[in-house]
Amino acid sequence: MDAILSAEAKPPLLRAGLQPGIAAGEDEWTSAAELELISILQSKAFRGSPRSAAFLRFVVEETLAGRQDLLKERTVGIVVLGKPAGYDTGADSGVRVRANEVRKRLAAYYDTAAPRAGIRIELPPGTYSARFVPMAAPAGAVVAAGAVAPVPSLPPMRLWQLAAPSLFALFLVLIAIRGDVESNDSFSRFWNHALAGRTEISIVVDGDGPASISPAMADAAMPFESLATVFQIPVHIATADRQTPASHSCIIRISTQQRPAEPALLQVNGAALYRGQNGAALWLWADTAEKLRSATQTLASRSGFPEIP
Q: Where are the domains of the chain?
């Protein structure tokens, strides 16, 4: 197989460790599904909904990892939507509503774009595991949920076949915007200082009851999860009452309830950013969760990132 990228040139939305497998020629169908996922998550249909993007990425990657049997409503609710472990799935339809939203966004994406990696990603009704449909297959042929090997009637896919001009252009764009922490832009200077050698990021949010995060606050915190792919370190979201400070963790406190008394470092989209207190590296406050989400989207992106003193 002809590899088209070096092992070091890893686009930011690929899972850690995937690119060396592409370069080595391992598991082409898994790689094709990952490349299709990148294209979908970068599209207009998903850029405006961080939670739908997180939902799709989670179910696709868990399916590719062979853990589709564990993709139950409760699991998705806890991991993606921040539900408490014992929540009532019968009374809370959040996961089902979000799954329908993801299906609508996938349909909207494929209404305007053809699969770029030769595989169409679907989320069939009644399941939370992804299905991969090879577009070159005869009518009705699919790769079942969880399966990533080609159907017998299809020849093995080669990466040079996937590298159509549009896909190659996507690679170039992704490489150009990848989170290179050594660059000298304001985004990198700010986050390098905030992280200061820390090996993980903890997002601490207001609780909505014991160890529970409200949907609005989960949405507000979700943009910060993109920092995991930028800096290649884990990002965790937890409620304030479950905070466990650690010397290796950069703590970011976001709140609509508690506001530091000292002057704000910066105003961001209606929210105020403070130097951290009580062990937090950063403190972000606003009077509504919507303003917090707008601010976190700005702080987690190079595009439009403010120059901070």
A: 18-177, 186-299
